[in-house]
Amino acid sequence: MRVEVVRLMRLEGSPLKAFCDIQFSDDKGDSDSFIVKKFKVVEGKEGLFVGMPCEIGKGGRWFNTFMPLSQSIKDKIEQVVLECYNE
């Protein structure tokens, strides 16, 4: 699976450093691709990390709307996003 940042919008003055949109596609081409919006680059206590897209639900709780099912794809998303952010 190919993971590529298609848009990154930097923010200043808060722990939230950027929003980005990611395109996911198979290795053969873009015919079976899709884009997921609103990943976040956040400055945490141990450095930068990538937050998943989420929305607020009833009672003010936040829920992820996108969840990788394996650690390897989560690591790949984080690597690609942080490389793009650091360019």
Question: Can you describe what's shown?
Answer:
With 87 residues, this protein is an alpha+beta fold. The chain has one domain (2-86): Arylsulfatase, C-terminal domain (2-Layer Sandwich), CATH 3.30.1120. The protein has one helix and six strands. The protein has one helix at 71-86, and strands spanning 2-10, 16-25, 34-44, 47-51, 54-56, 62-64. The strands form two sheets. It has a four-stranded antiparallel beta sheet with strand order 1-2-3-4, covered by helices on one side. A two-stranded antiparallel ribbon has the order 5-6. 9% of the residues are buried. The mean pLDDT is 93.
Give the terminus-to-terminus CA distance: 22 Å
CATH topology: Arylsulfatase, C-terminal domain
How many helix segments? 1
Radius of gyration: 14 Å
Query: What would CATH call the class?
Result: Alpha Beta
Low-confidence segments, ≥5 residues, pLDDT <50? none
Largest sheet entry: 4 strands, antiparallel
What CATH architecture would you give? Answer: 2-Layer Sandwich
Summary tags:
Arylsulfatase, C-terminal domain, four-stranded antiparallel β-sheet, two-stranded antiparallel sheet, 87 residues, single chain, alpha+beta
TL;DR of this structure?
The protein is 18% helix and 47% strand. The protein contains 1 helix and 6 strands. Strands 1-2-3-4 form a 4-stranded antiparallel sheet, covered by helices on one side. The chain has a two-stranded antiparallel ribbon with strand order 5-6.
